[in-house]
Amino acid sequence: MSKKEPPIELLFKDEAQNLGLLTEESSEVIQAVSKITRFGIDDYHPKNKMGNRQKLEEEIGHFLKIVDILIIHGTVTAEGIERGREAKIDRLLKWYNYNVRDHSRGNVD
Fold first, then answer.
1. Nearest one of 63, 37, 40 to 51, comparing CA atoms
2. Inter-residue contact 43 to 34 (CB < 8 Å)
3. Contact (Cβ atoms closer than 8 angstroms) between residue 71 and residue 9
């Protein structure tokens, strides 16, 4: 009979370690976006043949799993994150409307 492992979220109880993981995963999302910016979303790594879109999806998934762990351990709350998501929508709409009217930046209506 095999011993059942506890859910991975229960193993990561050290807040500093979890925040370090969040930093690492944030950096990996940034790197994936940078590759897309430089080479295009449909390009792929020549050695492992992983597409840039697939890599971005993977890294966002890793990031979100660390966010789940932070929620489970009470470092952040799902409600606080949702408030941040809603506030971001408001900011995006504010700045999008500003940029649409700002033709000097090359944006058009």
1. 40
2. no
3. no
Q: Which two tokens stand for residue 66?
A: 């660390």
Q: Tokens standing for 97?
A: 């409307």
DSSP assignment of 40-97 equals: -TT-B-TTT--BHHHHHHHHHHHHHHHHHHHHHTTSS-HHHHHHHHHHHHHHHHHHHH
pLDDT greater than 60 at residue 100: no
Would you kindly state where each structural domain of the chain is located, as residue ranges? 13-76, 77-109
CA distance 76 to 15: 11
The region that residue 75 occupies, defined by phi over 0 for left and psi between -120 and 50 for alpha, beta otherwise, is alpha
> pTM of the entire structure?
0.77
pLDDT in tens, 70-88: 999 999 999 999 999 999 9
Bridge partners (DSSP) listed for residue 51: 44
Name 44's bridge partners.
51
